[in-house]
Write a structure and sequence with these properties.
The chain starts with a helix and ends with a helix. The chain folds into two domains: 55 residues; 46 residues, no CATH class. A two-stranded antiparallel sheet has the order 1-2. The protein has five helices and two strands; from the N terminus they run ααααββα. It is elongated, with a radius of gyration of 26 Å. With 133 residues, it is mainly α.
Length: 133
């Protein structure tokens, strides 16, 4: 057996243990891989190899469905032109100009933007919120 073949066998043995550990953990593959700093692509590639070599040696475990979480933060991407309707901002009725039109939240910051605010100001606010730490 060559050095390369021995190395490959060691990798297969290591990944056989890792695949078994992941499958019996009760976690999603993504969650399990994230905890161990393993790419999911790498995991699935090795899982396929391991199962092809010794599919009968690993017991099949039912997958846990991923949890669906509501978004707590939605990032607004800022474009040079056309993100907000300039005409709405410039022609809001008098009574509506003081009403909050947009609330931008993110990274512990909440900014209320009122109707009538100029587009460059809104873009600057969004950039600042996106880059805040």
């Amino acid at each position: 057996m060559t050095i390369r073949e021995r190395h490959r066998e060691q990798q297969v043995a290591q990944w056989t243990e890792l695949v078994q550990e992941c499958r019996s953990s009760g976690q999603t593959v993504t969650g399990w891989c994230d905890e161990r700093d393993i790419s999911t692509k790498t995991y699935y590639r090795w899982e396929k190899r391991v199962l092809q070599r010794s599919g009968h040696g690993i017991k099949k475990v039912e997958r846990v469905p991923a949890e669906k979480k509501a978004a707590e933060f939605v990032e607004l991407r800022v474009r040079k032109e056309g993100m907000w309707n300039r005409e709405f901002l410039q022609t809001a009725p008098e009574g509506k100009q003081s009403a909050v039109t947009v609330v931008v939240k993110g990274r512990g910051i909440e900014v209320e933007i009122y109707a009538g605010v100029e587009l460059p100001v809104i873009e600057a606010i969004c950039r600042s919120v996106c880059h805040a730490e």
